[in-house]
Design goal:
It is found in: Nucleus. Pfam families: LSM. This is LSM2-LSM8 complex subunit LSM8. This protein has one domain: SH3 type barrels. The two termini are 21 Å apart. It contains one helix and five strands, in the order E-E-E-E-E-H. Helices cover 8% and strands 50% of the residues. It has 80 residues and is mainly beta. Strand 1 and strand 2 form a beta hairpin. Strands 4-3-2-1-5 form a five-stranded antiparallel sheet, with no helix packed on it.
Length: 80
C-alpha cells in the first residue's frame, strides 16, 4: 500500500499500479482518509485513481500491520 499527500492536503491510500517520469501515479483499490477535528476519520472509496505528479507532495509505503491496528474512526485531527 502507498500513502500519498496532495498539494490540497488530501490523504490518498491505495495499491501502486504504475508511475511515469512526471511522477504521475496510478492507484488501484484507493480511498481517501478525510480528517475532522470534531468527527473521527472518514474514508471515501475512490477505486482506480490517477494522481498527477504536479499535485503530489509526498509518497510513502504503509506498513499494513501497523495501519490495520489503528482505530481510524476514533482519530480526530484538523485537516492539513
Amino acid at each position: 500500500k502507498l500513502l500519498l499527500i496532495t498539494t490540497d492536503g488530501r490523504c490518498l491510500i491505495g495499491h501502486l499500479q504504475g508511475y511515469d517520469n512526471n511522477s504521475n501515479i496510478i492507484l488501484s483499490q484507493s480511498f481517501e482518509r478525510v480528517f475532522s477535528s470534531d468527527q473521527g476519520v472518514q474514508t471515501v472509496d475512490l477505486g482506480l485513481y490517477l494522481i498527477k505528479g504536479d499535485n503530489l507532495v509526498c509518497a510513502s509505503e504503509i506498513d499494513t500491520t501497523i495501519d490495520d491496528q489503528n482505530e481510524w474512526s476514533n482519530v480526530k485531527a484538523d485537516p492539513i
